[in-house]
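TL;DR need structure tokens for one chain.
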Amino acid sequence: MNAVGRRKRSVARVFFKKGDGTININGKSLEEYFPVKHIQAKVTEPFDVADIENIYDIKINVRGGGYKGQAEAISLGISRVLVQLNEE
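>> reply
TL;DR here they are.
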């Protein structure tokens, strides 16, 4: 499954596949790409709302904007994939 999220000047392409919950952003881990905890929380926020964790590996390509805009674009992309998986 895949989706696109946009925020300000940032565009994130999000790809899901079955796995163990690994999140890679532009070839780096979540903690490496966004070292600030509250930005990491913004990226993983859709999983808290949907009560889905550690089921999918996520590969993300993000371009443009600042780190906050990128995090919000990623969050929107993840949310769109989760809606495709389960509309409830």
